[in-house]
User: What shape does this take?
Amino acid sequence: MQALKDKIKGEGKVLSDTVLKVDSFLNHQIDPQLMKEIGQEFADLFQKAEVTKIVTIESSGIAPATMAGLIMDIPVVFARKRKSLTLSKNLYTARVHSFTKNETNEISVSGDFIQPNDVVLIIDDFLANGQAVLGLIDIIKQAGADLAGVGIVIEKGFQSGGELLREQGIRVESLAIVSSLQNGEVVFAKGEQTE
Ligand code: 5GP
Assistant: This one.
């Protein structure tokens, strides 16, 4: 997705060989126009998958997931990282180790919002080692729902998540795949260059 790649090149900050900061449009400040285009792209990619629900994880997955949900006209559920007093019974939970924060969270989704007849599309901002997506897949399995696939805004192709999921036969669609962050430079995967 060219507009996304241009934005990453223009505003992304390489924090280390493994971490990309995109706080100006995705992870802190949000660019709604770009999010709308991202939502449209996911809607187009999964148009034929008969998706009934989008599932994401708070907080940075919510913006792209909501835009996709608006265009696909289906509800969006976000897994919570902290237990809420109002979220106590009938919960699906999974443990997720965060790549950027180096801590393990128990994520949870109310059983009221994923049903066995749902066909779920997972959307998240980044794919690194795949732990967040695997936690969401665990929850979808607990609910007995089907998985249509995974939509990722930025995949870091040099980390293991993409391969881990694809080798399980899971459909993963990433709008930008970064192949390297070495020497402070963002390089996109082959066929993904901005030039
Ligand atoms: P994974 O679970 O695939 O290892 O990591 C994905 C999660 O970690 C995403 O939900 C995202 O919030 C965060 N993450 C992973 N890599 C990066 C990165 O390079 N930059 C930012 N901003 N977040 C990341």
The helical segments are 2-11, 23-27, 32-45, 62-72, 131-142, 161-166. The first strand starts at residue 13 and ends at 14. The chain has a mean pLDDT of 94.
